[in-house]
User: What shape does this take?
Amino acid sequence: MPPIKIQVKGVVTDAGSGAPVSYATISVQSIKGVIKRMPSGADGKFDFLLDSIGKCSLIVQAIGYETIKKDFVIDNKNTKVDLGTLKMKLKPEKLSEVTVMAEKPLVRTEVDKIVYSIETDPESKTSTALEMLRKVPLVTVDGEDNIQVKGSSSFKVLLNGKSSSMLTQNAKDVLRSLPASTIKDIEVITNPSSKYEAEGTGGIINIITTKKQVDGFMGRINTGVDTKGGYNGGLYMASKKKKFGFSLNYNYNRFIQPKNESFTTGANLLSTTDRYTESEGKVNYKGNFNSIMGEASYEIDSLNLVSLSFWGYDSYYKMNGDNLTQDFDINNNLTRKFNNLLNTTGTGGNFSGNIDYQRSYKKPDKTFTISYKLDRIPRTSDNGNEIVGIVNYPSYKQRSGNDAKGEEHTFQLDYYDPLTKKHQIESGVKYILRINTSESDVSRYDDNSQEWIRDNSRNNNLDYDQHIIGAYAGYVLKLKQFSLKTGLRAEATINDGTFKSTTDTSFTNKMFNLVPYITLSQNLKKGQNVKLSYTQRLSRPSIYYLNPYVNDVDPLNISYGNPNLDAEVSHTFDFSYGKFSQKYSVNISTNAAFTNNTIQQISTMNSSGVKTTTYKNIGKNQRFGTYIYGLWRPNKKTNFNVNLSANYSVLESNDDRNLKNEGLNYSIYSNLRYTIWKNGNLSGYGGYFSPRIMLQGKSGKYWYSGVSLSQEMFKKKLTASVSVNQPFTRRFRYESNQDDPTFTRRSISYSYQRMARFNLSWRFGQMKDQIKKAKRSIKNEDLKAGEESSSGGSSTQTN
Assistant: This one.
């Protein structure tokens, strides 16, 4: 007769706040000794099976808390033992006196997301957020630091569950400057539920910053230098006293890129006199980046909480370079030649503030939240260039500027009610007002008057307002091994704009969308699960796609935005299998996505050899992908993980040009970390990206590698590291190709990427409580900003 399986379950909470205690160590002892040991879940819950009969003791341990011991008896009469809520009291002793028996898993899965625990990874203490992002399942970061989720560049980045314009519009710069030591988890929400904005076709990356459980006050200082002349520094502080708490995180980064080289060849199929083009140039740039984040909260009483958060950045960059261009006729005779001397400066910034009032109830987890959020986004660019004509080309000096501003106001109400342990409901309403302006001008230098003369015919200004009204309702069913999450979101959008040029043009468009969502999840044996989901997503163009400012710093390569763009609508189907454990984990995801009106970057060539680039809703995109994440821990000293992705894309234009391109994109990333001595880690990583398919051609292949050595000292308060990027490649070659009925173009660039870096991080102080915040808040993850925008005259770098 097989042994009887007894189910034992319960939940671990903080005795003071009632909040769940995540990843507490759960041990069961009998006369045989320890018969079971496991961590509780992120929600503090535990649920396991025993086949022992008799007296048992359940022991609960967690950092900073007093140990709990609860005795119970297992007999043949009851197959279920519910130990209820186990309340843990804060421990007055130092944290170093607590012995941790279980380790928080590096990767875990929930109903609609995968979570990578950054704070569990030792490399986070000396790495940037962007470097750690390469390890996260379903996420890829290519050689130019462009980020993709499930093969798509259209996704949103949240900060602590809230939208952040600085991440929406400048993700890779922000993440490149943000120390990973300030991050707790990175969540990949591949199929966002109805409570999220309907935009972001590839999904959502949610960055959860650290909220250390400390006593009174704690802080951390970090600094670093690199061999290119760059340097960085940062300060993190947190404190909590009685009902008030706050945290502040400031970081500064100075970056220098001494020299990049580029070579371009092309053919203008519309011209016989300027048929072939050759150009070569070099450019260097430098700049600085400041960012700040903070949170504060005040507990009015046990059921009422006011919390606020703010984040922002400002940046400055300067670029100098020159570019020599030569044109040849169909018989390869030189027809024109000129040199372009470039001098560009720019500034960018963002400030966001969020305030939430949360009303809780005696019923656990039931909440009602009122939220308001403000965003301000200034951005300027000043482009100067001098054309030196050599053969059949006029000489002149020109400067142009663009001043773009964005302001956003968001109001939101959310209600969440766990009706029973099996049934949960949520609902909410939201209103967003976006006010965007862009002003630009162009001036030429007059040699006769020795003055700059403004060209009024080339001024391009834009006033653009967007109103979004949304409402959602969701339902969750949680059974023992099966979960269902479904919902519906309704969104109405009104766009009003005025494009001011030689003539004023007003435009208005309205949209209404019903966005369904459903995810089915089944837990299998031994930590395995499968999920099947469908969702519809939108992607509205941001001001950086709409900005009509004409950037003609390079007179043969002109770019501008399109104020008449519409939102993309995508249908996504996803199936995944996962198994996560302390020793090894694997996640396999397959999906298909279909979009009929994608925003595509389109280039055309005229008979004079001028290439013009803008954006249009002319794309049809079909994408079929498979993504594999694997983690292996053969022993306590070794950790190996790998990220594999492959997707087949079919891109078509639905206009009269009938453009089409299709092909396979794939990438691989792997990382190996080994503890070589006490508190000392050696790690190496490497990756490869295949050429990426675009509507008009494809980008080049790319590979990268790196190695680092880190050492923790003085009871792990001081961490020092030395790392080398691209140790095997001093100068990297990157190639891209464009093909069109009117032109062909092949570009080759060389960048000097080998760099050594030294970092120090010092942690001081300790705390025992964390800064509270509302469980639900504003998340504006809706603007399309999935690639580098060439509009607006700025070097805007986006997701």
